């Protein structure tokens, strides 16, 4: 039986600690960053403002606990997330194929480019009133304007991704006898996927902004409605709680999206 070399064991332990250190350092930096923001918020709010105008984090947390305890906040969160996810997924499913076609075929891009360049500069919230007139005050108008705000971001990023596919890869595939269909599915699509996913992450942020604006104007439930309605009685603690919730929900959703990308699409390129 061979003897175990203590030097090898010590070296392996050092390597494991070194591998864990970046993960631990990044997590500590997150904690320090969040704690610093909360301390600054507490100091500024308590020293320079009255609680009615700028509540401290402690006041906001206390109000949040009240709304969580009575269960009233969960309905607003659930409604807003349902609207965001519905519009975001529908918009992405529509936009990705359109972007791939526009990037791959010049006649299609030439035909649709004027519409893309025209409508992407019109804010989605501008369509809310016509959408309410056309479809009523239910969920359809809110979901549709999130679809609208998602489509153009994903289309533009997808077109850029297709245009960045290396010509050498295309020529290599042709030299190996690949058909146009095989080139699309085995070269263009994998090379473009990181751009599509990045466009979806950007569109997710816009979806949160859009749903708040829509809920402020035409809704009776949701985080945007909560912000807009709370202003009537100067409930700034609820307003700031809703703002913090938006940030937390957006941050969490993006983290989950990134985890899913690393789990199922890491082979197509880094997504940060």
Briefly say what this structure is.
By secondary structure, the protein is mostly helical.
Number of separate helices: 10
Low-confidence region ranges: none
For the secondary structure, the number of strands is 0
Text of the CATH class of the largest domain: Mainly Alpha
Helix proportion of residues, in percent? over 70%
The SS-based structural class is mainly alpha
CA-atom Rg in angstroms = 24 Å
CATH topology of the largest domain: MetI-like fold
Anisotropy-based shape? globular
Mean pLDDT over the full residue set: 84
* CATH architecture name of the largest domain: Orthogonal Bundle
CATH-assigned homologous superfamily of the largest domain? MetI-like
Separation of termini? 48 Å
- Percent strand: under 5%
Q: Can you tell me the number of structural domains?
A: 2
N to C succession of SSEs: HHHHHHHHHH
Major sheet: size, sense and barrel closure? Answer: none
Q: Any overview of this molecule?
A:
With 272 residues, the protein is mostly helical. It folds into 2 domains: 1-48; 58-268, MetI-like (MetI-like fold, Orthogonal Bundle). It is built from 10 helices and no strands. It is globular, with a radius of gyration of 24 Å. The model has no long low-confidence stretch (mean pLDDT 84).
What is this structure's SSE topology?
Blueprint: H1 6-48, H2 57-70, H3 72-104, H4 106-119, H5 128-135, H6 139-163, H7 167-175, H8 180-217, H9 223-230, H10 236-264
Record keyword descriptors for this entry.
272 residues, mainly alpha, MetI-like fold, 10 helices, 81% helix
């Amino acid at each position: 039986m061979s003897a175990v070399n203590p030097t090898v064991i010590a070296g392996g332990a050092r390597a494991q600690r070194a591998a864990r250190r970046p993960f631990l350092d990044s997590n500590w930096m997150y904690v320090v960053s969040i704690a610093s923001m909360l301390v600054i918020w507490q100091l500024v709010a308590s020293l320079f403002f009255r609680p009615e105008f700028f509540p401290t984090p402690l006041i906001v947390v206390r109000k949040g606990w009240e709304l969580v305890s009575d269960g009233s906040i969960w309905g607003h969160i659930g409604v807003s997330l349902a609207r965001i996810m519905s519009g975001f997924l529908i918009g992405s499913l529509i936009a990705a194929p359109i972007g791939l076609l526009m990037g791959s075929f010049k006649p299609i891009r030439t035909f649709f480019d004027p519409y893309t360049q025209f409508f992407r500069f019109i804010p989605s919230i501008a369509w809310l009133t016509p959408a309410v007139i056309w479809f009523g005050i239910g969920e359809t108008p809110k979901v549709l304007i999130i679809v609208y705000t998602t489509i153009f971001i994903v289309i533009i990023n997808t077109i850029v991704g297709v245009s960045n596919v290396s010509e050498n890869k295309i020529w290599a595939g042709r030299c190996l006898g690949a058909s146009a269909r095989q080139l699309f599915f085995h070269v263009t699509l994998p090379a473009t996927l990181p751009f599509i996913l990045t466009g979806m992450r950007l569109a997710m942020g816009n979806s949160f902004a859009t749903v708040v604006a829509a809920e402020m104007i035409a809704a009776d439930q949701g985080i945007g409605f909560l912000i807009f309605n709370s202003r009537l009685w100067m409930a700034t603690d609820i307003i700031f709680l809703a703002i913090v919730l938006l940030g937390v929900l957006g941050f969490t959703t993006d983290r989950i999206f990134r985890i899913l990308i690393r789990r199922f699409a890491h082979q197509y390129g880094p997504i940060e």
